[in-house]
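Quick one, T. Sequence first:
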Amino acid sequence: MMQTSTRATLASLVGLERAGLRDEGLAVLRGVTGGLMTGHGAQKLFGAFSGPGLKGTAGFMEHLGLQPGRLWGAAAALSEFGGGALTTLGFLYPLGSIATISSMTMATATAHRGKPIWVSEGGAETPLINIAVATALALTGPGKYSLDEALGVRLPKWVVAAALVIAGAGVGYGILARPAPAEQAASEAASEAATAAPATPGGPEKASIGPATDQLAGASPVS
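Structure tokens:
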């Protein structure tokens, strides 16, 4: 009898320990991944942390063939900043995960398309890691140390379904509406040729693409 009671007590303690570590682990995962995603979005949205701001992000979106650049730039910035903030706080689950997955999917399919997987080669290594983390959090929930848990917030299923449909439609449209690589290459070649053309006598010289786009060509603000 005493042996059975001891086993039950130990099993209970192990269960409590596992549950506590699970919630703490989720809090660490949310804090680090969500915090970095929030900062990444702030670079695009406000120009924080030496970021390009909305103007520079819009220019890069147009460079990728996403028109109008300002609309797509704002969408990327808001999804990363908002999704990261919601993930960090554990609030309005699973909207933060949906926003993160959407923006990182677009990054994978646009800025990193056709490149080797590794980040050192300009590939989608980092976006895919963010997608994996966001998916895991969507499956597990934000955990005990979250605003949802503290405030007793539970989003209705129809809200989550609507968010999934809107996000999926936006990502699908962006990928399908983007020019094919051959078309984009031809357009960029024509633009570069026009920029490099000599100025007419007595006329103003052609302006370069601009410092914002030149800077963004080396570092993608999408991922």
